[in-house]
Structure formats: structure tokens, C-alpha cells
Design the sequence.
């Protein structure tokens, strides 16, 4: 394995539960040391993908290599390289924080003292030292999540799977989990995380794949995705309001669409790509129109997401009209 | 965080079986911690021997044997085994719950022996079996029961029963992993256990039964175990029922360990 080969490389993963096609030919790649965000609505197949890649489920079709090992033929080697934090915290509620982590250290072959030291280390790193000797059943949602995360790190995994790590957390706990993920990535861990929150993918992920109904419907950085979804808006505001008719005329001439004007005298028109920007600028300069604003606004990741997954609920009214 | 603590020690895993044993013991420890935290989990195995003894000795005793003390003597080996049979079912319910809660997902994502969580569960159930037998013997002794064969033989009786229970528990491991809900596990468990425990020599001698039932009773593994325990506690033939018991135990292991492992691999 060379250092620059991807830590996760999946091709054509397919899996059905009865007649439900949970994964329908999924390809994805995670370069070493990066974070891949798997974004998708409920039921898109995110959890199934995580379970397949972490060897809990065997795919019906396709295969994947994780940390250089085939998930089908050498799952045990994959397990040695990964950490998994599932969608639902799998900490043992009857055990204390220390006991939960010590147990995993022992299972991984650490001698008793080393397992205890590792547990104490991780509990400190996740601000759980005060609660170390309390049953995990008494923990808050955020603490439980952090303990679950700590549990997946006992073995120092090279690749970490996080399935909706912040769903159901309050904003402060969410930021804490984000900080932990960033710290791990700084230390060289590669991460695949699933999320329903665009903000989370935007914050943490180097690359994003958008899942819908078991398929990858889009793939790229968050900027690339925003570009690809189109529906960018070209906005132009002349310095003198009297130049507005000229601006409107030029915009219509270049884009073929009728511009809208807002209260501040900004003319805006939907465009695809930024290429028109130069043309518009040239034409307006030739006509001697001074500008106080000229730019192409990308759609928010939210708009992209809902455009791609076709979820009707979140298309805002004003966008639909424009 | 220091790396020295984080790197697994390279010297420890020498033979491949040793880690598997260590892992199973670790998971057994987990279950024992849970029992210690919730002692009411042992309520069934503590009360059942007392309830069974009281019911059978005082309700049926007079009618069956004339004197309840004689019947108590006959009955103790039977109730010991019978309550043990019911105690083995708990493992199916516990495993089913663990899976439903997602705790096993973590174990399955770790590089540990596939068998470790199941073997760990079977090992930790020793606590339940020992509780059940201790309560029964203590209660019986309080009522006047005495072994005639000495303490070493009595200890052997307990060990044989314990070993058999651990082999039998694989049946319930399998059922617990195969049946969907914990409630259904209990239902299936009782269906399987009732004919075996009551169609045995636990309560009455085989000769008193109609012919067709005698055939079942005489070939019932539970009868062999009860006869072994009875021989070791009260005198009588031991070698033959013990051989049968060992044979049945081996058969149970040979059939249900692979079945349970296969169900575990499939069940998510
Ligand atoms: N154990 C299961 N049995 C049957 N269907 C399932 C099971 N798990 C998931 N599914 C179905 O598979 C699809 C993908 O589910 P999942 O991977 O959990 O999606 P996500 O994590 O993106 O919400 C959904 O339609 C879901 O209902
Ligand atoms: Mg999910």
C-alpha cells in the first residue's frame, strides 16, 4: 500500500433488504487523511453503506477495499484498521465509562494496566473524566456520543466511520464533536462520516457524496456541488440608479432572460456558470456604466441538496418563482 | 496522548486460540458486571427452585409418596436439573436484547474472534446456574434433605449439571439469535423445555408412566442427567447415565454451536 492510495475505495456496492434496494451500485473513494461526507435524507442508504464498509454487512454486489484490505476476503484485517461509531450509540449502559473503554482495550489485546491507562487517556480527551465511574446509562446524549466516539478510538484506527455523529445533539455538543473530528484528522485519521446536515458536511468534509435512494447522485467538494447544481444568480448594481435601464437591457441581451430588480436597485438574473460575467462587464464598461456591485452568487448547499435529491419540502418559495 | 499506550503489544498474541479465550473472558466479565449492577436479574433463578420445591413437595408430595420427606429426597435431583433447564433460557433473551440495542455492532466491528461474544455469554451464565443450584440445595438442606454419598460426590453432581447446562445453553443461544423478538424467544424456549423437563424422571419414576411416555422418558437427555445427579447424591448407578449425559452434551455442542455461529453471522 502506498501512502497516496485511497484508504477507502468502493465500486458497485449493491445491497437489498428483501425488495428494498438500500444500495444500488455505489462507488466512492476516500483519499488518505481526508474526510468524506456522505450526505443524504433518511432512508438514502447511508447507514447501509457504513455497515457494509465496516464489515457488519456483506454486499450483494460490488466490493471495497478499506485500508488496503478487501472487505469480502479479509474482513478481519479491515476491522484491525477501522473504528466505528454507529448511528445509535452502542455504549453499554450498565457499564461505567471506564469499564466500557477498558473492555474494548482488553478485547483488542491490551494488558489490563494499559487498557486502563488508555481508557483514562481517552476519557480525559473527551472531557468525561468526572463521569468516568458512573454508569453510561446516566450520561446525557452528548456524553454518550462522546463515549461512543472514544470507544471507536481505543484501537487507534487508521480509518474512522461516523454514522450521523451529531444527530440529536444540541449545538454545543455538536461543535464539540466537530472539534474532535478535526483533531483526529490533524493527527492523520481518515474519516467517512454520514450526515443529514449540510452545514456539517460543509464544515468537516473535504469531499461530499450525495446519496439518494441507494445511489450516489452527486459527488464533489461543496463548492463544486454548488456550481454543478446551476441556478446561480448574476447580480448587478449600477452606481447611478439612472443607468439601471441600460443594465437591464445588457443582462437580457446576454442571458436571454428578463432580470428582476430589487428595492436597492440591484438587477439579478439566473445564469449557468460564471462565463457571462466577463461579457456583461465588457458591455457595461463600453457603455460607460459605473458599477457598485457585480457578482455571481452560488446557491446555498441546502438548495443544492434539495435540488439533487428532489425533496419537495425544502425548495423555498422565492427560488421556485425566480 | 502517547503512542506507547496506543500501540497494541506485539508480544502478547502468540497462539491464535489464546486471544479468543481472553476475549470471551472479557465479554463474560462484562455480563457479570451487569448482573452485579442489577441483582434482580438473578431473581428468576433464585426464586424458581424455592417455588418448585414448595409446590411439588407440599402439593403433590403427600399424594405421590405418602410422606413429603421421602418425596423431597427423591425430588431434589429432579428440581435441581429442572430449574437449571429453565435457567438456560435466559441467555436467549439476553442475547436478543443485546442485538436489538446495537451493542453487538461494536463487537462485530472489532478484530476479535467471531465466537467471543457468544462464548462470553455462555460462560457468564455460570453465575446464574450456580445461583440456582446453591439456592435449591440450601433450601432443601434446610427442609431436611441430606446427601448419602459424601460431599465430593455432591460436588461432582453439581459440576456435571453445570457442564450439561453450558452445553444446553447453546440451543438457546441459537434460538435467541434466530427468533426476532425477546418475547418470542421466551415462548419458543418454554415450548422446548416443558416436555423435556416434565417428561423425565424429575417428579416420578419411569415405571409409573404409560408405555409410550416411558419410551420418551427413558431416552430423554434430561432423565439421564437427573439419574446421574440422583446417583451421585443418593446412591444408585452413575456410570451409565453419566455416559449418556456426556454423549448428549457432546451432541448438543456439535449441532448447536455451528448453528448458533451461523445464525450470529447472519443476524445483524
Ligand atoms: N434491516 C433492515 N431491513 C429492511 N430494510 C432496511 C433495513 N435497514 C434499512 N432498511 C431500508 O433500507 C433503506 C436504506 O436505509 P439506511 O441505510 O438505514 O438509510 P439512511 O441511513 O440513509 O437513513 C431504507 O429504505 C430502509 O428502510
Ligand atoms: Mg442511517
Sequence:
Amino acid at each position: 500500500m502506498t501512502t497516496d492510495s485511497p484508504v477507502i475505495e468502493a465500486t458497485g456496492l449493491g445491497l437489498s433488504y428483501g425488495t428494498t434496494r438500500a444500495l444500488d451500485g455505489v462507488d466512492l473513494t476516500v483519499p488518505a487523511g481526508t474526510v468524506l461526507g456522505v450526505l443524504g435524507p433518511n432512508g438514502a442508504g447511508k447507514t447501509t453503506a457504513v455497515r457494509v464498509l465496516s464489515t457488519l454487512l456483506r454486499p450483494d454486489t460490488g466490493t471495497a477495499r478499506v485500508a488496503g484490505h478487501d472487505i469480502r476476503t479479509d474482513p478481519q484485517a479491515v476491522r484491525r484498521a477501522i473504528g466505528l461509531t454507529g448511528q445509535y450509540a452502542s455504549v453499554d449502559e450498565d457499564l461505567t465509562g471506564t469499564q466500557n473503554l477498558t473492555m474494548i482495550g482488553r478485547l483488542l489485546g491490551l494488558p489490563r494496566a494499559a487498557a486502563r491507562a488508555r481508557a483514562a487517556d481517552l476519557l480525559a480527551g473527551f472531557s468525561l473524566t468526572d463521569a468516568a465511574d458512573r454508569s453510561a446509562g446516566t450520561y446525557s446524549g452528548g456524553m454518550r456520543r462522546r463515549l461512543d466516539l472514544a470507544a471507536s478510538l481505543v484501537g487507534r484506527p487508521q480509518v474512522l466511520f461516523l454514522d450521523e455523529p451529531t444527530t440529536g445533539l444540541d449545538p454545543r455538543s455538536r461543535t464539540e464533536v466537530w472539534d474532535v473530528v478535526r483533531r483526529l484528522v490533524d493527527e492523520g485519521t481518515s474519516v467517512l462520516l454520514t450526515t443529514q446536515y449540510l452545514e456539517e458536511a460543509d464544515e468537516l468534509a473535504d469531499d461530499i457524496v450525495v446519496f439518494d435512494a441507494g445511489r450516489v447522485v452527486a459527488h464533489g467538494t461543496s463548492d463544486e456541488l454548488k456550481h454543478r447544481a446551476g441556478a446561480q444568480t448574476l447580480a448587478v448594481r449600477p452606481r447611478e440608479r439612472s443607468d439601471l435601464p441600460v443594465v437591464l437591457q445588457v443582462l437580457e441581451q446576454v442571458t436571454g432572460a428578463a432580470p428582476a430588480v430589487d428595492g436597492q436597485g440591484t438587477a439579478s438574473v439566473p445564469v449557468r456558470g460564471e462565463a457571462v460575467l466577463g461579457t456583461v462587464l465588457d458591455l457595461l464598461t463600453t457603455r460607460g456604466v459605473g458599477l457598485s456591485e457585480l457578482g455571481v452568487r452560488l446557491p446555498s448547499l441546502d438548495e443544492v441538496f434539495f435540488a439533487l435529491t428532489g425533496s419537495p419540502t425544502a425548495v423555498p418559495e422565492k427560488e421556485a418563482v425566480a | 496522548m502517547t503512542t506507547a499506550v496506543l500501540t497494541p503489544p506485539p508480544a502478547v498474541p502468540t497462539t491464535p486460540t489464546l486471544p479468543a479465550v481472553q476475549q470471551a473472558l472479557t465479554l463474560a466479565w462484562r455480563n457479570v458486571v451487569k448482573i452485579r449492577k442489577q441483582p434482580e436479574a438473578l431473581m428468576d433463578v433464585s426464586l424458581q427452585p424455592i417455588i418448585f420445591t414448595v409446590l411439588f413437595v407440599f402439593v403433590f408430595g403427600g399424594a405421590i409418596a405418602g410422606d413429603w420427606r421421602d418425596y423431597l429426597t427423591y425430588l431434589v435431583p429432579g428440581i435441581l436439573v429442572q430449574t437449571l433447564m429453565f435457567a438456560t433460557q435466559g441467555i436467549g433473551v439476553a442475547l436478543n436484547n443485546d442485538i436489538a440495542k446495537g451493542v453487538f455492532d461494536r463487537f462485530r466491528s472489532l478484530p476479535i474472534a467471531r465466537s467471543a461474544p457468544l462464548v462470553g455469554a455462555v460462560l457468564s451464565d455460570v453465575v446464574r446456574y450456580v445461583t440456582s443450584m446453591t439456592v435449591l440445595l440450601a433450601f432443601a438442606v434446610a427442609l431436611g434433605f441430606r446427601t448419602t454419598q459424601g460431599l465430593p460426590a455432591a460436588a461432582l453432581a453439581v459440576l456435571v449439571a453445570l457442564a450439561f447446562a453450558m452445553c444446553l445453553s447453546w440451543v438457546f443461544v441459537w434460538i435467541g439469535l434466530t427468533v426476532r423478538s425477546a418475547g418470542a424467544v421466551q415462548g419458543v424456549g418454554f415450548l422446548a423445555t416443558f416436555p423435556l423437563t416434565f417428561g423425565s424422571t424429575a417428579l416420578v419414576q419411569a415405571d409409573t408412566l404409560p408405555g409410550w411416555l416411558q419410551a420418551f422418558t427413558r431416552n430423554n437427555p434430561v432423565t439421564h442427567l437427573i439419574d446421574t445427579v440422583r446417583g451421585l447424591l443418593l446412591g444408585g448407578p452413575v456410570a451409565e447415565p453419566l455416559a449418556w449425559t456426556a454423549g448428549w452434551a457432546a451432541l448438543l455442542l456439535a449441532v448447536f454451536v455451528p448453528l448458533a455461529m451461523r445464525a450470529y453471522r447472519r443476524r445483524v
